[in-house]
Automatic annotation (TrEMBL):
It comes from Lentzea fradiae. One of its GO terms (molecular function) is dihydrolipoyl dehydrogenase (NADH) activity. Disulfide bonds join 40-45. The keyword NAD applies. Residues 3-297 form the FAD/NAD(P)-binding domain. FAD binds at residues 49, 109, 134-136, 286. Residues 332-437 form the Pyridine nucleotide-disulphide oxidoreductase dimerisation domain. Keywords: FAD, Flavoprotein, NAD, Nucleotide-binding. Belongs to the class-I pyridine nucleotide-disulfide oxidoreductase family. Its cofactor is FAD. Coiled coil: none annotated. Signal peptide: none annotated. This is Dihydrolipoamide dehydrogenase. PANTHER family: DIHYDROLIPOYL DEHYDROGENASE, MITOCHONDRIAL, DISULFIDE OXIDOREDUCTASE.
Amino acid sequence: MDFDVIVIGGGPVGENVAARTAAGGLSTAMVEKELVGGECSYWACMPSKALLRSGHALAAARRVQGVTGGSLDPQQVLARRTGFTSNWDDSGQVQWAESADIHVLRGEGEVTGEREVTVGGEVHRARQAVVVCTGSVPKMPPLDGIADARVWTSREATSAREVPDSLIVLGGGVVGVEMAQAWARLGSKVTLVVSGDRPLPRMEEFVGPLVAEGLREDGVEVLLNARASAVAPGALTLEDGRVVRGSEILVATGRVPATKDSKPLTVDDTGLVSDVDGRWLYAAGDVTGRALLTHQGKYQARAVGSAILAQVRGEEPEPWSAGQSNADHVAVPQVVFTDPEVAFVGHTAEEARKAGRDVKVVDLDIAVAGSSLHADGYKGKTRMVVDERTRTLVGVTFVGQDVAELLHAATIAIVGEVPVDRLWHAVPAYPTISEVWLRLLESYGL
């Protein structure tokens, strides 16, 4: 069959590309080999946050004087999680796709020629564009015995039907810390094995220790500077000879693009794949390696869809138009849904300095009237990184209970290049945690 656009991958990224081109009047097919809705809907963002939310709500309630008692019902938490995945049934997502005039092709899609995609032995051609949105897959470390050991990846960690008696989590990234806390709060004895001196090492240096402190308060044993050398069923051997035992082992050591060679597809800001003649092959999401985050992939997808529609009209998208994903370079927001939460956007102070910027760093504890009301003994920290030449923000980090909702203001300030002198006039409501913005700007010197 021929279509105007063929999208390979039916996760959130592929859905957004397909929805945009279909809404623009182009006949669009979307290829999916597993569940329409993809990793985020069934094995990542949604189920993982559902597993975390109940424990966070209980912990938040206990931090306010006058609240006593309360406990988690693990089976009810798991049932709520399963509700968010529709019990791993994608019929609702398929119905949505069909209602949006997207033709769903079941099977593994492969680009087999110019504007040509083969699915289950059938060749389909795209008159305008092929878009690769195949996402990413877990990266397995080269440990002795790992090929034969029955280990969890993020999929098993978010879809398990029972709480394991004990769990070893290998890896101190986002998946590692989130799943360590989720299962610890549901009653598992968790050990987190981190190869470096802190979890979340790519974030500001104060982030990891604060998250590790929160994990320890929930009973997680956090092993730092602990490198694994071998895996066996129920046991992880470290380079120093120690053996960590657990009924399940979650390997959370990163992800790689879901391509044949695990290498990303290099794209420009419209999503056009480099070194392919004819302006017909696009890509978006994790497969590009630009920002392995669902929201950023969906942002790229909207740009790709808009760029394809512009190309059909004979137009070229301008920078910072809907057809270019320029924010990938300056303001990628991310939340780590642990307790305390981590909300970060832009560049760390170290990254900004390495890029040659003259920066001023403002560090503060989150201690305002709003935080005091929010939780007794509220603990949190924030950092603002300012480019002194332009007097604009280039990076902001918050760590603390429920700080995720502060992040979009920071994202807007960075994307909009709002000068700190103007930002001073964005008055935060009292008494909210957002009042920390006023304290940051006062500390900066305004």
